[in-house]
Amino acid sequence: MGESSISIDGTEIAAASMDGVGIISGSKYAAVNDALAEIHRFDTTQDLVGQPWNTLYSPEDGEGTAGKFLTRAREDGQWRGRAFGLRRNGDGIPVELSMRTTDDGVICVVRDVNEKISRERKLERYETILKTVDDGIYVLDENLKIETANGRFFEMLSQFGISREEARDSYAHKLLPREEDRTALKESIDEAINNEPHTGSFEISAEMPTGETIVCESRFRLYPEPLGEYRGCIGILRDITERKKRESELRNTQRFNEELVENAPFSMVRIDEEFQITYVNPRTEEVTGLPDGKESEALGVDIRELPSVAETGESHVFTPLKDGETIEFEFPFESLYGRKVYFTGRGVPLMSGQEFAGAVLMAVDISERRQQEKDLERQRDELDTLNQINELLLAVARDLFESPMQEDIEQTVCGRLAASDLYQFALIGKPEEDGNQLVCDTVAGADDDYVESITVMTNETENGQGPAGRAFRTGAVQVSQDVQADPTFEPWREAATARDIRSVAAVPLVYDGTTYGVLAVYTSRPLAFSQREQRGFEMLGEATGYAINADRTRQLLFAEKVTELKFRVDDSSEFVSDASHRLGCSLSLEGYISTDDESWLMYFSVPEADADRFVDLARSDPAVESVRAVRRDSGKMVALTTSSSLLDEIVAFGGRITSGSIDAGHWTFVVEVPQSTSIAEFVKQMRSVYPGADLLAKRDGEQPAERSRWLSEEATVNFTERQRQALEAAYLAGYFEWPRENSAEDVADLLEISRPTLQAHLRKAEDKLLRVFLEEGSEIGERPGG
Q1: Are 466 and 488 in contact (CB under 8 A)?
Q2: Which of 286, 332, 355, 385 is found 20 to 30 A from 524 (Cα to Cα)?
Q3: CB atoms inside a 10 Å sphere around CB 135
């Protein structure tokens, strides 16, 4: 075959070819492309140009030289076959030569057979992958027409109701059933065209007849022309239904965990590997007092360096977390916002392999429980103390009634209190006769310097504002729970503090409205006097006051010498004074009996002409509880129950009225008191109630001779209060007269008790009287059978 007459630009062909191309002029390469230089391992094309052609190649069978291939190509116009190529380093490689004769020379195309075989094998593998891969693979042209796709792609489309026949050579966007899916595809393609790295993705979904929703994801890459024009894309279609389910489950789990942490009733704190706080849940913010809308200042702080943690000395409890150990902790904590809480909790380490990656701390605010425990402990201590106090007060009360004299009573009370472990010392102060000062009368446990250094007033001056002054004025227990902080205790603070006194209680010694003095009790315990303890002291004060009153009454009853005081009172506001004034009559006090409700049952002789009007006035007066005409004599005896400040004061001082009358509203009465009574104090007390009271006369004398020896101190009749009341009421009502002037029913009505109860009290009282009289009488001797 002769030489071809076609003329070409060999250099242009060589540059555009993907294979090795060279132009042979004579027996040498006149021009080569980069691919040919690469095949022969020349650094540049210029290194290969000029090389003798037949030295670069040899026949595959080894016979002759490669020059024969060039000769045949020139003779036949072309030649194609295999040969061995020689690389610059001397290695041989199998090549495929394809030569064609032109007017400009011989064009030789050289292809590396090894690379071709490799490409063929890769292509075979790709084809195998495309057939067996579980994803759909497709190729779209620039108009979104499906050029080719694997079988899995068509299978997946069938799930959306698209058959293989419909899909083949169809436009992808027209196959999608939902408008939003078509829009998503176009938008993804446009996004990939306009932005590097020219990739994109979109999802399509469809609901199956079973109700299940299938979701597929498509990921693609554009393959542009060399000049950048879009000429289609290749993509993968993957069924992500299960992945979507797992993602949904993970999202739900994550949401649940987040809600659990956010709404947990306990505190949760996350720390990183440096122990710095990275998260606190709302409960932590709440218990630490974080203001609304403010970010916690603890974030980013090493939890061990928080002031409240460092101050507790418990920072070390977090160290084992670094070694993967779970920790437990319990300590008080004051937040950066001033909230005090008590935490107990656990810390769980988070490990990344063997490396510490942080921890989660879970804590419960047990402040309320701790406070309850403290309260219970305090209550137990308080109860133990109260039991000791009660035992002490009971012992004092028992001793009280074994001490017949007022001095013994007061010394017993102070001595027993001062001797206990609960109190430092005790003293009793009494008002001075002609002043406003409480004078220390009895003391136990206190040194003389303290007693002499204090001044306590009964009025409202500075020295009367302390517990003792207030107790005297109010008649109620008063305390200073902390003398170091109590401003009302300022006048005595220095002296008390020097003796380690922290609390003081002042107890009025009261009976029937009269305050005989104030018992002051000192202790080194702060906040020592609880409400229950104060109530116990209140009862002790009442018992002591009662004992003092009983002693004064006993002194009057058995005193050999008494003092008679005659008074006139013009300004009494009591009912009997007002009634006498309104009626213009005279009333004579025949007797009186104290009742259980702090009232008095009083017996008055009333002129016959005025008796009915007196009774009518009494019944209409709210101050009179009851009134009854009980006896006729020269006039009429009227019994009425009412209050009487006059009798309250006289009896409180151990005195009794031996005679009394009211004439047109003016009281005149004689009071008998023991000679040991302070007359000045008695008169002062009378005038505190009746400022216009006049002392008309004072006479010292002996007990009347008619008081028989069986009523002497050596032979007392131990009546109960009810027995005494019943006996006196019956006597004054004429129950023992013959004939009886009032029946047992009438007397019982006066005392507001039943008739059987009255008769029971009378029988027991009569028995006690007769025992004393008959057993002591020299003529009669002992009772029969006694």
Answers
A1: yes
A2: 332
A3: 18
Q: What is the mean predicted confidence (pLDDT) over 349-356? A: 88
Going by C-alpha positions, the residue among 784, 732, 739, 729 that lies closest to residue 759 is 729
The confidence score (pLDDT) of residue 731 equals: 81
Contact 409, 551 (CB under 8 A): yes
**What is the pLDDT, as a whole number, of residue 710?**
40
| E-only strand ranges, 183-251 | 199-207, 213-222, 233-239
Q: Is 781 left (phi over 0), alpha (psi -120 to 50) or beta?
A: left
Read off the pLDDT band of 507 (50, 70, 90). very high
The beta strands (E) that lie in 223-300 are given as: 233-239, 267-271, 277-280
CB atoms closer than 10 angstroms to residue 469:
26
The H or E element containing residue 368 is: helix 367-400
Is residue 487 very low, low, confident or very high in pLDDT (cuts 50, 70, 90)?
Answer: very high
Task: Identify which has the larger pLDDT, 302 or 513.
Answer: 302
Q: What is the pLDDT of residue 633?
A: 54
DSSP designation for 133: -
Q: Which residues pair with 344 in a beta bridge?
A: 330, 364
For residue 515, the cross-strand partners are 510
Fold of 377-548: Beta-Lactamase (3.30.450)
The larger pLDDT score, comparing residue 288 to residue 158, is at: 158
- Helix, strand or coil, per DSSP, at residue 264: coil
Q: What is the pLDDT of residues 644-668, one digit of tens each?
A: 888 888 887 778 888 889 988 888 9
pLDDT at 434: 67
Q: Is 3.30.450.20 the CATH classification of the domain at 264-365?
A: yes
Domain boundaries, the chain: 10-118, 133-240, 264-365, 377-548, 559-705, 708-786
Question: How do residues 660-718 score in pLDDT, each as one tens digit?
Answer: 899 888 889 899 888 777 788 888 888 878 888 888 888 887 655 444 344 444 445 66
| Nearest residue to 686 (alpha-carbon basis) of 578, 599, 569, 516 | 569
The class of domain 133-240 in CATH terms is alpha beta
Per-residue confidence (pLDDT) for residue 783, from 0 to 100: 38
Same fold across 10-118 and 133-240: yes
Cα 381 from chain centroid?
23
- On whether the CB atoms of residues 162 and 189 are closer than 8 A, the answer is no
Based on the number of CB atoms within 10 Å of its own CB, is 78 exposed (0-12), middle (13-18) or buried (19 or more)?
middle
Looking at residue 126, its pLDDT comes to 66
Closest CA to 221 of 129, 136, 139: 139
What would the two tokens of residue 136 be? 């759909």
Stretch 367-394: mean pLDDT: 78
In the chain, the percentage of residues whose pLDDT exceeds 70 is 83
Phi-psi category of residue 747: left, alpha or beta, with phi > 0 → left and psi -120 to 50 → alpha: alpha
Label residues 675-695 b or e (16+ Cβ within 10 Å = b).
Answer: eebeeeebbebbbebbeebee
- Under CATH, to which class is 10-118 assigned? alpha beta
Across the beta sheet with 20-25, the strand order is: 28-32, 20-25, 105-112, 92-102, 78-86, 57-59
Q: Considering the chain, what is the average pLDDT of its residues? A: 80
Q: How far is CA 507 from CA 472, 474, 475, in A?
A: 8, 11, 8
* CA 162 from centre of chain: 66
- For residue 693 the two structure tokens come to 């009271």
What is the band of 631 on the pLDDT scale with cuts at 50, 70, 90? Answer: low
If 0-12 CB within 10 Å is exposed, 13-18 middle and 19+ buried, where does residue 247 land? exposed
Put the strands of the sheet holding 199-207 in their side by side order.
Answer: 146-149, 136-140, 233-239, 213-222, 199-207
